[in-house]
Amino acid sequence: MMDSRDEVVLALTDDMDTGSSDGPHSPSTRRSAVIGHFLFRSSALVIYILCAWFTTSFVLPFIFILVCLSLDFWVVKNISGRILVGLRWSSYTDDAGVVHWRYDSRKPSPIDSADVSSLSRRELAARMARQQLSRLFWMGLIGSPAIWCVFFLASLFSLHIRWAFVCTIALCMNIANVYGYIRCWMSNMNESESNILKVIKSTATSKMSNLWPLSQTKSGSNTTSEGGLPLVA
How many helices and strands, by DSSP H and E, does the chain display? Predict the structure, then answer.
């Protein structure tokens, strides 16, 4: 049973996250995740732009756009973020009925954290491919709400209130994912900084503990030599 201390959890433990030489996921799985990451959000934008050319109805395009946005929200929240960047946000309700939010991040693989000079050509290529897919993820995550924001302003200034409402729904669903993944990224950065500070503190404490007996030994030897000197009349 989870409690409030699990509000921010920095580990992913899905059954799908099995390790391999190429990382936690195969290249084909990551490519499929990229396609899913862009498919539904692009479809919603295309329907919004082209619907006036094929129909004068508002209801039918609205339904298609809403379905695409819902599918996009689910895929980005639960699949593409976990596979492409190792991040996921979610929520759970405890026994008291209180909702807690989780911002998870997977620990970097040995290939990602290793020095470039120690990697083989195959491992280096896999590392660069994952970095490129990570950039694509963030571009799609942030670019989509930016486009919907432009459409919202255009429909608002042209007094197309119904389409401004559609853009508002799209913005809310996209910004929710942006906020969740930024929180995951910030939590991961805070955890990394905390680990670095712990290492520095441990190293400094070890150095001080090694120097303290040495200084005590030198002080004791000086006292003995001074006490043993004869007095000259």
Answer: 6, 2
* CA 194 remoteness from chain centre: 17
Model pTM above 0.90? no
Q: Give the pLDDT of residue 11.
A: 40
- Is residue 30 within 8 A of residue 83, CB to CB? The reply is yes
89-102: average pLDDT? 87
What residue segments make up the domains of the chain, in order of their start?
4-210
**For residue 211, is it left (φ>0), alpha (ψ between -120 and 50) or beta?**
alpha
Count of other CB atoms within 10 angstroms of residue 100? 17
If one counts every other C-beta atom within 10 angstroms of the C-beta of residue 11, the result is: 10
pLDDT of residue 89 exceeding 80, the answer is yes
What distance separates the 2 farthest-apart alpha carbons in the chain?
Answer: 119
Task: Check: CB of residue 40 under 8 Å from CB of residue 69.
Answer: yes
CB neighbours of residue 191 within 10 Å: 15
Closest by Cα among 224, 65, 80, 79 to 155: 65
Q: How far apart are CA 86 and CA 113, in angstroms?
A: 14
Rounded-to-integer distance, Cα 23 and Cα 25, Å? 6
Q: How deeply is 156 buried, as exposed, middle or buried, from its count of CB atoms within 10 A (0-12, 13-18, 19+)?
A: middle
Tell me the average pLDDT across 74-90: 92
Provide the 10 A C-beta neighbour count for residue 208.
9
In this prediction, residue 93 carries a pLDDT of: 87
